[in-house]
């Protein structure tokens, strides 16, 4: 059989290497950005097992389990009918883009960012305007630059707070200024704020309030994947105070997913009922490992460390005055030889001189061993 032509698929998705986070284990994985994973044994109390036994394997509702939505709403400052369950935060990002944008519409997205958030917009053939945030400015939001990027065709502004990869959080005044700018310059636009790491604070630090109640044009998304350590449940959510926008999001979910998994939603209820204990343990861990990382970074003058505001992740940079571009490549090669994986900046639209380190995934003693190996790779340079 002769093939007359080759079939090529344009790749508009995140870097293939990023899928290694779930597809290829690494001995010292500093690229992972989650807290330690829960075990089913932590959740399967006798009453939960009994509820699972009675659970029918039919479709659920498109909005999702009412009990779960009520528990989420109580912590977000909205009502249960303003919460829409999704298959993780990734599908939440997709649903927003599908609900509010058409091909050719403009989307403004702050970068660096979670790769699927950008890749999805490209796939939908939207006009993406990047709002580049700079390491040397602490990845803080440049509101004036954002305002300058807005047009009457802007339909979506996509931000994350705390950000992935940096863990930097935007302030309430900044986000209020964005809302006011949209009122004036892009009246048909939605502000999407990804709050996936909001509850991943350090030690006894207070958890910032959600921005879900801020305005009707604000949509938030998050999941149980990062802060709670339950990515395998594939439970995320959207909030919208606008009944019209909520209905558009609900219809988009029905079109793509119909409903969520009843098993996942039932177990997610149990995660939230135990959330105080689950999150307290993870906040204590993150506080300790962040202190370890900050102390280690201070011992390596060729590294610049950007302390995060939240989340199990942060950014470091190989100092431009100390390491040239060739040294950057040799650094990443030396890490691979030592069975260490970090998340290079190119995954997020940054230079590989910047790299993300996750400090919530490994046990503290293994985390310290991984840092020793990173230090040895630096010594080679």
Blueprint (SSEs and pairs):
Elements: H1 20-23, E1 28-29, H2 40-43, H3 46-54, H4 66-76, E2 83-86, H5 88-100, E3 106-111, H6 115-123, E4 127-132, H7 143-149, E5 154-160, H8 172-185, E6 190-194, E7 218-223, E8 236-240, H9 243-256, H10 262-273, H11 275-298, E9 303-306, E10 313-318, H12 325-337, E11 340-341, E12 343-344, E13 354-358, H13 364-380
Parallel strand pairs: 1-11, 3-4, 3-5, 5-6, 6-7
Antiparallel strand pairs: 2-8, 7-8, 9-10, 10-13, 12-13
What does this structure look like?
The chain has a 7-stranded mixed beta sheet with strand order 2-8-7-6-5-3-4, with helices on both faces. A 4-stranded antiparallel beta sheet has the order 9-10-13-12, with helices on one face. A two-stranded parallel ribbon has the order 1-11. It starts with 19 loop residues before the first helix and ends with a helix. It is an alpha/beta fold and 381 residues long. Helix content is 40%, strand content 16%. It is globular. The chain has helices at residues 20-23, 40-43, 46-54, 66-76, 88-100, 115-123, 143-149, 172-185, 243-256, 262-273, 275-298, 325-337, 364-380; strands at residues 28-29, 83-86, 106-111, 127-132, 154-160, 190-194, 218-223, 236-240, 303-306, 313-318, 340-341, 343-344, 354-358. It is built from 13 helices and 13 strands. The chain has 2 domains: 16-40 and 276-380, Aspartate Aminotransferase, domain 1; 49-274, Aspartate Aminotransferase, domain 2, CATH 3.40.640. Strand 3 (106-111), helix 6 and strand 4 form a beta-alpha-beta unit. The longest helix has 24 residues, at 275-298. 46% of the residues are buried.
């Amino acid at each position: 059989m002769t093939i007359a032509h080759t079939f090529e698929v344009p790749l508009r998705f995140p870097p293939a290497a990023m899928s290694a986070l779930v597809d290829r284990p690494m001995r010292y994985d500093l690229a992972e950005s989650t807290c330690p994973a829960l075990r089913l044994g932590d959740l399967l109390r006798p009453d939960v097992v009994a509820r699972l036994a009675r659970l029918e394997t039919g479709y659920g509702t498109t909005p999702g389990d009412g009990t779960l939505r009520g528990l989420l709403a109580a912590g977000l400052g909205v009502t249960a009918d303003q919460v829409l369950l999704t298959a993780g935060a990734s599908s939440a990002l997709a649903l927003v883009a599908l609900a509010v944008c058409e091909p050719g519409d403009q989307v403004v997205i702050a970068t660096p960012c979670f790769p699927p958030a950008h890749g999805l917009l490209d796939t939908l053939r939207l006009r993406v305007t990047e709002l580049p945030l700079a390491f040397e400015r602490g990845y803080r939001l440049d509101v004036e630059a954002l305002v300058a990027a807005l047009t009457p065709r802007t339909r979506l502004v996509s931000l994350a707070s705390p950000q992935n990869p940096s863990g930097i959080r935007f302030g309430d005044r900044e986000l209020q200024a964005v809302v006011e700018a949209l009122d004036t310059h892009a009246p048909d636009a939605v502000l999407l704020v990804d709050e996936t790491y909001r509850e991943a604070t350090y030690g006894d630090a207070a958890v910032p309030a959600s921005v879900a109640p801020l305005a009707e044009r604000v949509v938030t998304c998050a999941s149980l994947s990062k802060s709670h350590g339950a990515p395998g449940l594939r439970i995320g959510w959207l909030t919208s105070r606008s009944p019209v926008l909520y209905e558009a999001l609900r219809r988009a979910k029905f079109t793509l997913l119909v409903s969520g998994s009843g098993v996942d939603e039932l177990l997610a209820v149990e995660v939230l009922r135990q959330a105080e204990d689950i999150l307290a343990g993870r906040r204590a861990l993150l506080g300790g490992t962040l202190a370890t990382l900050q102390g280690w970074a201070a011992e390596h003058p060729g590294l610049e460390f950007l302390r995060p505001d939240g989340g199990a992740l942060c950014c470091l940079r190989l100092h431009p005055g100390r390491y040239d571009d060739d040294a950057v490549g040799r650094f990443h090669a030396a890490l691979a030889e030592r069975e260490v994986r970090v998340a290079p900046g190119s995954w997020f639209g940054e230079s590989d001189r910047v790299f993300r380190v996750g400090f919530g995934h490994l046990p503290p003693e293994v985390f310290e061993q991984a840092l020793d190996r990173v230090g040895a790779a630096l010594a080679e340079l």
